[in-house]
Structures are given as structure tokens and as C-alpha cells.
Amino acid sequence: MSFNLHRAWVLMLMLFSSVSYAAYDPTDIKAVYIFRISNFIHWNSESEMTNIEFCIVGNDKIASTLEKITQDKTVRQLPLSVTPFYREQCDILFVDAKSELNLADVLPHTVVISDNQSIGSQGGTIELATLEGKVKPKIYMANIGAYSISSSLLRIAIIEDGEKI
Questions:
Q1: Integer-rounded Cα radius of gyration of the chain
Q2: Which of 23, 31, 108, 129 has the most CB atoms within 10 Å of its CB?
Q3: Signal among the record's keywords (predicted)?
């Protein structure tokens, strides 16, 4: 097993454990989370999709790491691709907390993930919250668009039921 593949595998195993691993860069952990989350999203139009496109806005390190760990991988037989900017074809959009991307034009098909604490009030679906040194997904149920989220992800996430903004 190559070093990068081994490292990605170790990171994936860490994601759902309760152990904190300070040795790994938080951006690497977020990239692995974004990849793993794709396995728990089911798009309404999935039967018509030819791939799953990840768009990363405002964080080149996450884009680079995600590109490495998704190389030659599929989710439900759909090939994965990574784009370092937003476009309408994005299936999963990660918006860095420092980014100024306006989410008003993001299509309901797109799962919006961010490490920004106010992403829920901006219409985003999943916040990668850092709590007690660990990254944990916080899901804003009112902001779910043209897709569903597996109960497996909902069981480990913090659920926010607030009204859609």
C-alpha cells in the first residue's frame, strides 16, 4: 500500500472514532470528511449522474488532499472529480470559512459543506465543526436540498432542526 493511500485510509478510520489525533493536519481531516460524506448522500437525480463533482472554494490544501484521496475512487460506481472553484455542476461544494462565496446562487442539487460556524444561516447543509479538538459534522436539516442524507451519517452528527433561511 502506498504511503498516501495508507495515510488516507488511517485518516478515514480516525474520522468516526472518538480518539483525537493531533498529529494530522485539520485540513487533511476535513478533506477526508468531505470524501466520506459523499458516501452518505443520495441525490434525487443520481440515476442520471455521470460522476460526483467536488468543488472546493477558498482552500487549496483541502482541494489538493481531496484530489489525492479520491483519485481512481468511485461512490456507487460514479467516478469522482475535484474542481478548485464553484460551478453549477458541483454536487458537493466545500466553502472555506474565509471565503466570500455567495450561496444564494447555489443549486438545490449541491450539498454545501463548510467549516464556517454561520453556514447554516447562509443556507449550507453541513458544518465541519471543531469541538474539543475533534471535527464533527453538524447537519442543518432545514437546508437539505434535492438529496437525502443517510441515517448512518445522521447518527454520528449534531442535528440542527432550525427553520430554512
A1: 15
A2: 31
A3: yes
